Amino acid sequence: MNITHSRFVTLPVADQDRAKDFYVNTLGFEVLIDQQAGPIRWIQVGPKGAQTSFVLATAEMGFTPGSAKGIMLETSALDADCAQLVGAGVTVEGPEQFPWGRQANLTDPDGNTLTLAAAQPNGS
Predict the structure, then answer these.
(1) Cα–Cα distances in angstroms (integers) from residue 20 to residues 11, 96, 121, in the given order
(2) Tell me, what's the pLDDT at 16?
(3) What's the pLDDT at 122?
(4) Is the peptide bond before 95 cis (omega within 30 degrees of 0)?
């Protein structure tokens, strides 16, 4: 096998503009693609420089808004990011210490759950 990385993760959303606002203006992601393809609007966002991005997909594309769970995002500043999210009105649970590291949970406007994890010293 020659798989090198995940290209994108699908985030099922009800309102693409609201989701785009959250991921870009609240989480600081970049818009990589925002274009209309017939009846479908393709919006792809991601952290600056990341290999994996996120597609904000609607029910018209066959997805159930809010059904994504267990998506983990790594941060180099967990406490500061959590404080900034709370300041922006996002409900954040944690951060908490687990045997595998520190992390905090949040939910996007559509109910997709995300985990912010502190970067590990060994890079894993």
Answers:
(1) 11, 28, 31
(2) 97
(3) 65
(4) yes
Residue 76 confidence (pLDDT): 93
In angstroms, the CA 74 to CA 84 distance is 15
Q: Which amino acid is at 12?
A: P
Number of Cβ within 10 Å of residue 104's Cβ equals: 21
**73 confidence band (pLDDT: 50, 70, 90):** very high
Q: Are 107 and 65 in contact (CB under 8 A)?
A: no
- Residue 102, pLDDT above cutoff 70: yes
CA–CA distance, 117 with 103 (Å, rounded to integer): 4
Q: What is the DSSP string of the chain?
A: -------EEEEE-S-HHHHHHIIIIIT-PEEEEEEEETTEEEEEEE-TT-S-EEEEE-GGGT--TT----EEEEES-HHHHHHHHHHTT--EEEEEEETTEEEEEEE-TTS-EEEEEEPPTT--
